[in-house]
Design goal:
Blueprint lengths: L2 E5 L3 H13 L3 E4 L6 H7 L4 E5 L1 E2 L2 E2 H9 L6 E5 L4 H9 L4 E4 L4 H14 L6 E4 L2 E4 L4 E4 L2 E4 L2 H12 L7 H8 L8 H17 L6 E4 L3 E4 L1
Parallel strand pairs: 1-2, 1-3, 3-6, 6-7
Antiparallel strand pairs: 4-5, 8-9, 9-10, 10-11, 12-13
Length: about 220
Amino acid sequence: MKKILLIEDETALREELSVLLKNAGYTPVAVTEWENVPEQMKSSGADLILLDINLPGLNGEALLQELRRESSTPVIMLTSRTGGIDEVLSLSYGADDYITKPYDPTVLLLRISAVLKRTGKTGAVQSYHDAQVSSVKGSISRNGSEQILTKNEMIIFQLLLDRQGEIVTRDDLMTALWDNDEFVNDNALSVNISRLRSKLAELGLEEAIETRKKQGYVLR
C-alpha cells in the first residue's frame, strides 16, 4: 500500500484524513511533533505528502521549498486560504496540486490518485483477492487468464478497487471519468459497468461488483 504523510496540525481533521486514506487503501502516517519537520518529511519514505500551509511556528510553503532541494516526493497542499496567490506560490515552489478546505473527500482521493499516477508512484500491479490488476497494461489476470479493459473500464475498476468495501456512487464514477477522451453520460456509464462485469465474470469473479439500489456500487 502507498504511504501518505499527513502534515496537518488540526487534530480532528488529521484523524478524519487518516480514516479516509486508510479506507481508500493507503497507509497514512501523521506528523504530530512540530520539531524537525523537514527531517521527518525527508526520512518518512512517503509516496505522497499532504501538507498544510498554516502550521505551528512553520510555513508549509517554506517546508515545501526545503523539501524540493533534496526530494521529488509528490506534494499536495491543503489549506483554508482562498487567495489565488497561495496557489500560485505553492505550485511555483514545486507542489504537485493544491486543494482548499473544506474539501470533498471523493475529490481529494481522485486528486491523490491522479498525482500518484502522473508521478509514476502508483505501482505496476495491485492485487484483488487472487487476481492481479495492472493499471499500466489495463488488464486483470487470474489463474492464467487475462482480460484487457478499456480505458473507461480501467478507471471505473481502479476507483472501486481504491475504495474496496465502500459504496462508490454513480456521481463518483462520473467525476472520475469526466476528463477522459470519450464523453460518458449516464447510459454510457451503465454500458461500461455491464461490460466490466462481463469481463470479471470471464475470470470467475461474477459477484465482484455489487449494486446498492439508489446508492451505487461496492467492490467486494
